[in-house]
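writing this on my phone so excuse typos. first protein, seq and then structure
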Amino acid sequence: MILDAETLALSPAVELLIRASEKLELPGRLKTELFASIVELNTDICDSVGGAHEALRQLRRAAGRIAEENGLRIAAAGSHPFSDPEEQEIAADPRYKEFVGFAGVSARRQGVSGLHVHVGMPTAEACYATLEGILPWLPLMLALSANSPYLAGRATGLASNRAEVLAQLPRAGAPPAFGSYEAWEGFVERLIGLRLADDYTRFWWDVRPHPRFGTLEIRMPDQPTSLAVTAALAALLQALCAAVDVELTRPAERGDYAQNRWAALRFGAGAELIHPDGTRLVRVPELARELLELVGPVAERLGTTDQLAALDPSTCEGERQLELGRREGLEVVCADLVERTLR
């Protein structure tokens, strides 16, 4: 998020940041998003989580430096504590104007930010099988990452307002159980043919194949403030994908997913989730420890054990926001986000 340095309110200055960044040699790029007060940081392709961690560090520092030189600040979180999303300026891009015309107030409410992790896949079939294999664990990722407790100046009682806001879009939440990559592709192409979408990236599911990049794109987590938490979530998602046995995957239970997604966005790390085996309720910290144990050998092989150590299954960053907000107010919450984004 791009903030005014004095008021810490959202500031529509993304074009300024992008123009200045184009003069720099960076391991990625700064891009526009729907709102002109949001800058998206994209790394180049990275061959390790450690490489992605360092690339994001450099991108954050560059964005922070440009912002500071222009009376601005940057802050990473799932939502801004007090600026109203519906009052924000839309970025100057025809596709965004078209999207707002189509989605109306649902688009105007999308002043939220997430972490998108692309994991390279060997084949289209393996990509789809991996999607089904990781799907039951994704609500846990949302609970661990919940970092958007405030919306337009209110603590709404949701740990992740972002997840609730995203659910207002068409083609959101879990993708349907297509059964195969070919069936997914056929569905997407049919809706494009019906002019309901112009591209497969207009399907805003929590996870989706990204054939142009050859990846599975996981879009579930809220945007972390801590860079260490960002790297930890990327490491956990990579290890989870690598641990999936694509020969044994079956369609995940969408009803359980919907229940778990709601519980995660409502309660964050305090949620009780239906276990992926469908037999019992499990608290988030216990389920997280089970997942970390499950992927431990894979993480060791991938060299990401140290990154995973930054995760605290007993809490999420949104709880820190709420505690600060109750004690010192929302401007202090914003100031803390600014400081921790570049720590």
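second protein below, same order as before
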Amino acid sequence: MISLILAVVFFVSIHLFVSGTSLRTKLVERLGEQAYMGLFSILSLVGLMWMIQAYYGQAPRIELWGQIYTGRILSSMLIFLAFMFMVPGLLTPGPTSVGGEQLFKDEQPARGILRITRHPFLSGMAIWSLTHLIYNGDLASFIFFGSFLVVATFGPKSIDNKQKLIYGDDWQRFADKTSILPFIAIIQKRNTLPLKELFTWKLAVAFVAFIVIFKLHVVMFGVAPIIPAS
């Protein structure tokens, strides 16, 4: 359990206390943007692999409230929804993507899933991690999935701070048309939701990815997925 806790502290710290802070600015000034991004990516991968190894290989399962077996249709729907955010989020270029600053020049820099939330991947991660945390019900899962929930909850603000420092007014124009919480910008009429921008091949990829992970969950992770009760 100690290894898992250390891995989580490492992973969460580099995402919340380095990225989007003055420390990142200092590191970029010393290393350069590309070198910093490379180092950050390597450290993130190391932290992630450390967490996975500690969670699946070493951490004891100490029950808190225990596994939840009821409401599994709901849990499957939530995981499916998480995929509908995460996969299109990865496939949709945005101002926060590498080289995406060119999109600031567009009249509408937020298209597709970005109209719903400017951080679709993290929104999906929040749903995914919270669902797994609740339905597993043990201490190791609380720590493991809780770390992703913390990053997904506080990460968007950290990213926003970083982008505002770098792009200033261009970023603010994008932020004014979007929201961190899904659908808020649309509800507030700061943006619209053309369905033709959402129902594209990206949703099909998300659906296929969900089915593949669902079918291979036992092989990949050694445990049965959260599935509807038969």
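The chain is about 65% helix and 0% strand. thats all i got for now
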